[in-house]
Amino acid sequence: MDLAMGEDDDMCGAIMARFGNSLAPEHKQLCATVQIMAEVLQDQKLEPTPKHYFGAALGCLMKLQGAGGAPRSEAVTTSFCTFLAMVLNKIPANTLRAKGDEALKIFVGLVATDSENANTVKAALSCVEILIRGVDKSNWLTVAPAFNCLLRFCLDKRPKVRKRAQLCMTEVLSSLQGTHALGTASEVVFNLFEQSLNSVSNKSQGNSTTGAVEVLHMLGALKQLLPLLSVKSIGRILPYLAQLHELQQPMVTRSVLDTLQALCMYSSAEIPPVALGDILGRLGALLASGEKRSSVDEVTVVTRILQHGFQKLWNADRTLCVAKVPAVFHSLTGLLAWEQEEVVFAAAESMRHLIEACIDEAMIQQGVTQVRLHGEEQKRKGSLTPIERICVSVESSLGYQYSTSWDMSLHVVAALFDKLGESSAILMASTVITLGDLQNLPDDDMACRKQLHTTLGSAVAAMGPDKFLAILPLEMDGANLTESRVWLLPTLKQHMVGARLQFYQESLVPLATRLRERARSCAAAGKPVAAKNAESCVQSIWALLPSFCNYPSDTAQSFSLIAKTLGDVLTKEQDLRGLVCSSLKTLVAQNRKARGDKMDDKVAGILIEEENSEELNVAEQRARSLYTPEVAAANLKTISGYSRNFLPLLFNLFVASPAERRGDLQLTIAAIASISDKQTVKSFFVAIMKKLLQATVEASTPAEPGAMQVDAPKPEESPTARRCVFMDLALSLVNGLDDEALGMLFSTARPALQDNDAAVQKKAYKVLASICQANINFVAGKVEELLETLLTSLSSVHSSARRHRLRCLHFLILHLMKGGYERKDEAIATLISEIVLATKESNKKTRNEAYDLLIEIGHGMQDEDTGGSQERLMQFFTMIVGCLAGSTPHMVSAAVVALARLLYEFSSELCHTVPDLLPSALLLLKSKNREIIKSVLGLVKVVIARFPAAELDQHLRSLVEGLILWSDDSKNHFKAKVRAIIERLVRRCGMDSVAKVMPQEHMKLLTNIRKTKEHNEKKKKTTEEGEEAETKSVQSRASTARKSKWNHTDMFSDDDDDDEYGDMDGSMKASTMAKTRTNKSDGTTKSRKLRKSNKRLPEDLMDVEGEGEPLDLLDTRKTREVLRGPKSQKKKNDSDDELEYTADGKMIVDESGDKIRDKIKRKRQWEEDHPHAAASQAGRSTKRGDDEVSRKSQSRPGKARKTNNESKSWAYTGDEYASKKSKAVGDVKKDGKLDPYAYWPLDPKILNRREAKRNAARKGMGSVMKSAKKMQGMSSKEALAQKPARAKKQQKAHK
Q: Which PANTHER family match (predicted)?
């Protein structure tokens, strides 16, 4: 027991506080002992420190021990030992070293005399352990008796005593690490272990049981002690453990394996390599022999021992490890044929870890050299290198005898590909061929095809596509493309990295050309299917280009070979233009990133998507490691050399392309311009500016009044459209322009800020924002001019351009905050109102830009590096508060929204402003303007969510009184919002606190909230039983799908359930979020468009066999299966025989057939009781089938056909109650059945939304009730038969 207290704290008070209220007798005795010790110290006028307690308690214990033959209370002795065990941990080291030898003798003698009392022994052993760790161990003779005492009790027959002794020995041996005493102590442990083994072998057959038990106890102790012994002792003990394991005794074997596992997994344990290698070899040979197979648990433990043991052996003796590890791979491969999944998984995991830990470059090069010297065709039996033997073992795991574990074997093969890298093309060529053969197996024999493609992808990434396709060629030049390996193309596209551009240009581009010629010839010969197949293969080959540009290894050497091809494709192949643009952007972005350039994807638009995964695979790491800044600079120099060729080509394509196809072209132009020479870019820029000015002049020139437009230009050919095109081109070149060119562009864009055309104005603001971001020094030199420009254009800004204008304000304000401008505060205050108003924009992007700008300004005001401080932040916050005095409700509402955003972001810094701000905000709740009310409610949400509950209690009354004003407003959806806010208050402050300030007339709202909460909790408890697995999966999905820290819609939404997610603190309750998602996906909140799209696009049908892979439309067999799928699936879903499952997911199979018999019995019973209903249903189904046939044969286009609606419903006529006598009238009662009854079905038109339809339905039902009196005395059958007859007579009379 350890107490959380210092050395000078009162031991008596600490122990009484912990055990004073306990009812256990030992705790009561301990408290009494502590009180006695406290009184002794008080009588002796000593301070109650651990040191003094130790002296007093040890003296009392010596008196008890020296009492001679007087009786001694075991409880008292135990309490003193327990108290001393607590005190010894608090004693200073020097005191313990001085008094430790004497105290050890006392406790050793106490253990010897009171060895039968388990509680006393356990407490005394704890004291002995602390004393041994504290005394001077250089004189082993003084420590040896106590150490032997501890070691002897490690074999005690009492489990608790034995466990306490083993724990104490572990602590003692840990304290001996690095000292000379460790060798002596380890020798003592080894002697005891050897003695226990000899006692078993020397004892007679009748008394061998006790010795065997001691051996088991010793093995249990070695599980903890062996990793702490000296290297010499470990080496002497391991052979004995190997011999014990070979006895194949279950209990002994398990103990030995546990000991070895603990030894191998102990990170700091030093093991003799020879002894370790010998025992690991024996374990591996035992697995490979196949004789006397052990249990599943033992085999899994052995695999873990081999895994961690060989890692230690590799660090200790690499040569020995290399010699032994191939045999272990062979043994582990044999385990893959086991039926138990635990064994297969353990073996595969061990092989993967051994591949990672026990294979180095020297082993790989040795194998490659040997193969190159002797050749692959020679069978060198017995002379294979270790790495070749490993490859052979791993490849053998793909044999058909391991088909049930191919999914795990493929993971091992993939790990070996990743480890070998390019050398895998030499060492694992036959494995690649085997993988290709597995692809040809039918789906029934190859259930893990997805893992197979992943493994092939690892091979492609490791050895490169050129070497991979040399081993497993595409074979697409054959007469029949269906017999080729076209299935490899998606794998190549997904997994390729670090490939060579030269191979693509020299091998795949000619192949695409040949396939294109084949497509044309097939189309000319009247073979459309073959032509489409060939054309799709061409598209797939060109789709590989972006993957080849993913960190290619020969950009500087081979880009010149492929540049002309790319230019030709851009010019001639419109469908492939996007692939080429994507490839160029990837090349530039990756090299710029490797060179260390600072890029912004918002302006340049050339950054590729960064990987979301925290760690990259081995191939990507290898490819990226080659991209040093020097290599990247050389690559960019080569690419920029072709900018004079690519830029004019891209300009022409950009101008000629429609607006929807210009995105990729613009990003590609920006990417190439960012790495091109400044003068080159400037020359192109001057030409573009001339055309821009010309288009501007044409757009501003009014048409002649009397001129007649014979051929009016199209909208995309108008001067305004061309003006926007050239502004986009100029925008693409911003990152490659110098200051002079930027000034020219600014002068050109400045007048366009006040243009009446929204598109021109938007382009101008985009250009201005890009200039500000590309060169911040440009902003510094034109602060006055830029500020004047933005202020004068404020009145004419269009809503579509406001977001880009805010970006301009962003850079301007950030520069102003850094200083250097005299009227900085005045300028910022001038722009504040515009930013605040932008938070109320309907456009989400504009609104988010305004929020980001507010937060950036706040952080800038607070940042000390830019001259900010807490006072500056408060000044900025005060500026926003001043906007509450706006003259319009829109401005007031925007100010409240901005304050809510700042309070959310800077809650800790602005917490003290809430008491002054909240009364003013709540006062706005008395306004009648809906916009203001909604914003204030959002602010209240922020205050409740972000501020501590203790501070909320102070304002609870004012919050509740303000919210209650709108608790009855249903017209503006405020009633539900107020309820949601009060629920949040209840969660934060408690039901009782809210009830105290809630007006009495509104207490029913709290009552309803409380009952709803209790009902939901009760429902949740009942649904959790039997659905633990499903709940766990839902919660895991919800916990990973977190919301952002700020969400405008959640705070200021008009929805009634906007508070469904709980507290807006960045993390939500998983169950609530999952429930909301389910409700939104299944309920009526889904829009009609979404429902139509779900019906129109059944994407689940395109999932082949639920594997999540896209459907190959070129595969005729799979396409037919999918086309047949919906019908068969519908039949399955329409079946009433749904499968039942247990709570753990197991399917329940009813072998007796009771359910089917019960179902048939119930159906027959129902048909007997309702013969007319059954006949009506049967007739209805037959009628439906006949109607469909007649409709198909007789339907005519353009002519509506009436349908018979009489079969849509049926009336229960009560025929079974009719009398069988011909003259009888009325119904007859029957035994075992209800009294005679009949009913008329309700007309569904009564629920129609049209008033005329509802009136007609009511009239029909009214006529039924009126005719009831006329049918008195008739049977139900006769009464129901009257109406059709009368209708026929009326119809004839009408005619």
A: OS02G0782100 PROTEIN
Type of residue found at 1020? K
Cα distance between residue 830 and residue 824, in whole Å: 10
CB 942 within 8 A of CB 904: yes
Q: Which range has the worst mean pLDDT, 53-62, 1030-1039, 1164-1173? A: 1030-1039
Helix-then-strand count for the chain, H and E: 61, 2
Measured at the CA of 157, the angle between CA 155 and CA 158, to 5 degrees, comes to: 110
User: Identity (one letter) of the amino acid at 1285?
Assistant: A
Q: Is 1098 helix (H, G, I), strand (E, B) or coil?
A: coil
Q: Report residue 442: phi and psi, to 5°.
A: -70, 165
Q: What are phi and psi of 1227, to 5 degrees?
A: -100, 160
Alpha-helical segments (H) within 775-869: 776-781, 783-792, 802-817, 824-838, 844-862
- Helix (H/G/I), strand (E/B), else coil: 86: helix
The DSSP code for 91 is: S
pLDDT score recorded for residue 470: 94
3-state secondary structure 1244-1262: HHHHCCCHHHHHHHHHHHH
Distance CA 546, CA 550 (A): 6
CA-to-CA distance for 393 and 334, rounded, in angstroms?
A: 9
For residue 800, give every residue at least 6 positions away whose Cβ sits within 8 Å of its Cβ, in sequence order, or none.
758, 761, 762, 843
Q: Give 956's contacts (C-beta < 8 A, 6+ positions apart).
A: 985, 989, 993, 994, 997
The residue assigned the tokens 């950030």 is 814
- DSSP class of residue 504? I
Find tokens 């009489």 and name the residue: 1206
Is pLDDT of 47 > 90?
no
Sign of CA dihedral 436, 442, 446, 450: positive
Extract the runs of DSSP E, i.e. beta strands, from 993-1080.
none
Q: What is the largest CA-CA distance in the chain?
A: 137
Residues recorded for the chain = 1295
Buried b (16+ CB within 10 A) or exposed e, 1123-1160: eebeeeeeeeeeeeeeeeeeeeeeeeeeeeeeeeeeee
CB-CB neighbours of 565 under 10 Å? 15
Q: Per residue in 1175-1186, is it b (16+ CB within 10 Å) or e — as a string?
A: ebeeeeeeeeee
By CB atoms closer than 10 A (0-12, 13-18, 19+), residue 639 is: buried
Q: How far lies 1063's CA from each of 120, 880, 988, in Å? A: 54, 25, 9
Cα separation, 678 vs 670, in Å, equals 13
CB atoms near residue 1012 (< 10 Å) = 12
pLDDT single digits (tens) 704-763: 554 444 444 555 568 888 888 898 999 899 888 888 888 888 888 888 888 888 888 888
DSSP 8-state secondary structure symbol assigned to residue 819: S
pLDDT tens per residue, range 550-582: 999 999 999 999 999 999 999 999 999 999 999
The DSSP symbol for 358 reads: S
User: Mind giving me the DSSP string for 674-721?
Assistant: HHS-HHHHHHHHHHHHHHHHHHHHHHHSPPPTT---SSPPPGGGSHHH
What 3 state SS string does 435-493 have? Answer: HHHHHCCCCCCCCCHHHHHHHHHHHHHHHCHHHHHHHCCCCCCCCCHHHCCCCHHHHHH
Distance between the two ends of the chain, CA-based, in angstroms? 107
Query: Is residue 415 within 8 Å of 462, Cβ to Cβ?
Result: no
Where are the alpha helices (H) located in 906-1002, listed in sequence order? 914-923, 930-946, 949-954, 956-964, 974-989, 991-997
Residues β-bridged to residue 1148: 1140
Whether 499 contacts 467, CB under 8 Å = no
* 606 pLDDT more than 70: no
β-partners of residue 1218 are: 1227
The two structure tokens encoding residue 739:
């200051």
